[in-house]
Amino acid sequence: MSRLLHRVALAASGALGRAPSARPALRDLDALLTREALLLDPGGDEHRILFALVDAEDGRFQDALDALARIATGSPRPAGSSARLCAAAVCELLGRAEEADRWLANEPEDKCPLEDNSFQLALVTVTLGGAPGAVAGSQGRLAYAAFHFIDGCVRDGGMSAFRIIVTGLLKHAVKRRECSAWWPTPSASPAAPKFGPFFVVQSLQVLLSAVVLRALPLCGERVRAALRVVGRDLGRAVEGRDAPAVADLRLLQAFLAARGSYFEEALATYAEAAREDASDPRPRYLAHQLCVLAGWPDESDKWLAACKHLAAGSSLDEQVALRTLMDELAVAVALGGSALAFDDDDRFPVVMGKIVGAAGSRADAALVSALRDKNMPLAARLEARAARAFLHAGVWSALKDLKSKIGGAT
């Protein structure tokens, strides 16, 4: 578990009791696993299941299974049943079918695990943790689970018309991936409890990565594995005195740290890169961007003042490349769990403006790149063009609203 998650876990299990967690993922999971879902006492098995799923999302699957086993054997229903269903989902995506069947052995024969909120929740979190089964035959189940939560947000009125249209386009793309056999019907799909926006983002990430692209998302253990590889290559570059490679690898190392929610480590890496090359504006601008998104105003001002005179002499190509790096960092910090990016009260329009603009820019770039493929089928080309048009309209509208909030706050 990252240090950020560790601090949140301590807060949730200690004196703060039922206070919302600092990390949006935990806050949303906490809401999903309370009241109607588990009906457990605060601070008890409810949080133990929550922490087990956080371990699963972090790629610590055996730790998650061990924790769920303790809950399942020592707790009455509904906690014991929820823990068994979560454990079954973990085992299923790990390819341990017989173990998954044993977890389900004590459940009622007429109960379908896929229609249970706990089972669906575990499928999503385990996929984010990088379980290999997520892209090896379980796409239908994942689509069912992810759209269960997304559709619940639509029914609850938590999505704008723009988001509903984009979600519809995504749903169509998922159906083309031969997942329609698992599609929930209105009568068969149980109502999902209310939850926060970050978990909707995670569900969408599962759909895009595991179902549409057939690739594991960059989360949890996969981030740590990438950091280990980059650290190894960085050591070689330093030993070989390859200054350009050292600079680029440090920026990649900081990006991965931010994606994994290691924000302090990312800032320290940018600072080290800035010390090594006083003429490179990239680490200074990226450090400034990180501090804004993480909610560190004093640090952000310091970094902005340090880089302005350097950026003034950059070429147009260098400025475009820097803007791309800043956009990618904004998306990484948001997906890494910046609390400011998913504040329920929308109190940080500047941060949201940066993230919305960055996400829109990178999504548009991906669509433009896809449209360059001359072999793209006509139907897919029309869908990509429609998605790009909706993206432009939605992002423009969102940025306009955020700009008005920024103006109203000054």
Compact overview of the structure:
The protein is mostly helical.
Describe this entry's structure for a reader.
The chain starts with a helix and ends with a helix. The chain is mainly α and 410 residues long. The chain has 3 domains: 3-212, no CATH class; 220-335, Tetratricopeptide repeat domain (Serine Threonine Protein Phosphatase 5, Tetratricopeptide repeat); 343-409. The chain has helices at residues 3-13, 24-32, 45-57, 61-74, 79-93, 97-104, 117-128, 139-155, 161-179, 197-212, 220-239, 243-259, 263-276, 282-294, 297-311, 316-335, 349-371, 378-409. The protein contains 18 helices and no strands. It is globular, with a radius of gyration of 22 Å.
What is the strand and helix layout of this fold?
Layout: H1 3-13, H2 24-32, H3 45-57, H4 61-74, H5 79-93, H6 97-104, H7 117-128, H8 139-155, H9 161-179, H10 197-212, H11 220-239, H12 243-259, H13 263-276, H14 282-294, H15 297-311, H16 316-335, H17 349-371, H18 378-409
Helix content class: over 70%
Q: Into which percentage range does the β-strand content fall?
A: under 5%
Order of helices and strands: HHHHHHHHHHHHHHHHHH
Counting structural domains, the number is 3
Q: Which shape, going by the Cα principal axes?
A: globular
